[in-house]
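Fig. S4 source data, part A: sequence.
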Amino acid sequence: MSSPTGGPGHGVPPRDRTGQAEAFDSIGESYDAAFPHKEGQIAATDWLIASLPAGARVLDLGCGTGVPTARRLTRAGLDVVGVDLSAGMLALARARVPGARFHQADIADIGPHGPVGLGRFDAVAAFFSLLMLGRAEIPAALASVRELLAPEGMFALAMVEADADDLPVPFLGRTIRVSGYPRGDLRAVVERAGFEVVEESSRSYAPHTSDGAGAPPEVQLFLRCRRLD
């Protein structure tokens, strides 16, 4: 996961997410152990792979450990850039996916007008990264994603379905703050940001915990989108 914010000019000041990054630094490899089955994420990644030509540029926004998304995209012959705020997660990603390039940055820094000039992308994947924002920031983050995409660029988004705004929750031994929407509201927010929702799906998933007891299941929402121009 990462913690992107609205880019310059979007009118929403970025919230300090130092604590969020530190939480994921400490979580490290425990994240993949808690989420060993990522069928929905893999299916959305494979949709990008099937739709893009070899060498297409793809941004993995909130790349975490690089597994499975950045690794799968790289192995398919795509030019992959990963971004995350967590230095610990990025260290794992660089070791696991040497064929991709990784940057420690916030989305405010990587937009077309930000200080980290990564250029434009043919596709963006944001799997469970935008849920780290407050609801007031999510439209600006989506606008930044749209600006990063080439015309008719593809966008694969995953969120947890929840009626929550900047809610503190326990997560793998740490506390993080998350936001979410009921599925209809999420679709509306994405469409207002200038995307066509090509396909929507959902999965129920119960994360594993260190004591083996599991956790209450969450509903994961997956939207496959294209930039409207």
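Fig. S4 source data, part B ends here. Helices lie at 18-27, 30-34, 39-51, 69-75, 87-96, 107-110, 138-148, 183-192.
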